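Fold it.
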Amino acid sequence: MVTISREKNSLPCETEAIHTDTTPQEETRGDQLRAGARKLRSKATLQLKFSLSYILVIAAVLVLLNSYPLLVSQNLMVTSTQNGLKSTTKVIESALMGLEKLTKENVQAALEGLDESGATRVMVTNSAGLVLYDTRQGGNAVGKYALYSVVAVALRGQDASYCKYDGTAFLSRVATPVVYHNQIVGAVYAYDYDTEQAELLETFRHNLLIISLLIALLVAGLSIVLSRMLTRQISGLLQAIRHVREGAYSHRADASGTDEIAQIAAEFNSLTDRLQTTENARRRFVSDASHELRTPVTVILAECDTLERTQPTAEDYQEGVGVIRRQAQQMSRLIGQLLHITRLEQGTQKTYMERADLSALAEAVCEQQRLIAPAGTELTLDAPEPVEAQADVLLMTRVLNNLIANAFRYGKDGGHVSVTVRRENGWAVLAVRDDGIGIAPEQQERIWQRFYQVDPARSGGEGTGLGLYMVRQIARLHGGTAEVDSVPGQGSTFTVRIPAHRK
């Protein structure tokens, strides 16, 4: 209270002095002090978070350590108590199993001298549940019915047990049938009220609690020390993160050292190198997808509106569904190709480079493509010898499929498409030629661009304008090139070159 009063009393004086005698140097110094105060608050917050995280983690661990051993110990004690009672009932049941009918007299005679110390109480009933024998002092249950659920289960021919821990003792009940010549003549019931094991369990619980508190205090102290150390190391990394957050992708964190923080800083620097590329790819993907999907979405919505407003015939309905399906398939193909291209551009496309025979690969692809070739179109393969290269087989298969599909689409009806695989000056060369419409010189470079199609009408609504772009990207991923040689009206030859495997 006194301190607050002094601060309140001093503030007007200081304020007044500033009003009358402030200099630019003092204002600058004041800004520096306020900036320093904000920095201290930031560090304190970071330290607090680290400390709390350590404490929360150790708290969770301590809760687990306090609950699991207790649960296991409790289950073991329950099992031990029940096994002891079961042994007692089985011994008594063995002593009685030779009796055709259970009576008070023959039961007492059979059990005379039998050790029953393993249970607090033992009762024997006849087949109707009437108590014939009771070890409780006075035997006050004799002549009464044993109204216990475990006894009822035993009289139906099954062993039954029940155990409960109430915090002060283990309450256990066990019952087993007495059988004579496959006939149930009675039941043996045993009850135990065990406080000794309950005391042991509570002592164990108490000791665990004390140990947990000591560990918690130790961890709390260590967390403060460790948080301060980590704060000093991370402060530079946090500063770099703030710069990158503000758009300064060229900023780099100090990655000197060999510890984990230095490794994080190095990974952060590597990440910032790819952030701009990723962001550009994301923006391009969103832009391209929104632009190219607008037409099929518009067609689908229009077709749905027509089907809803009119009363279409079965034929009209089927035709409308077909239009919607084709447009949806086109959208699916487009999105799939865009995602694949985005991964290629980002450098996140997983590749599995292996020594592959491109001649054998081309033969397999041609066999599949002949099955879907347009009627009358001939597809031939010229691959006289194995041509090996370090390549991703799936990606190179996609290259050939795209080039052959493009040749089918823009070749002439009943024409000829040829695939050639050869080795040339250290390059593995894949060439696909068609005898179709050809490509004008001013269009030959544009065909490698995204979404560009020489003649969209020839694609039949199935082309996306991304196939050739993907071909060039895959070629570049393999350290190669993709080119076209075309003469309008005579056809086109698409050639992909990647480094051949050295012999």
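The domain at 351-499 is CATH 3.30.565.10 (Heat Shock Protein 90).
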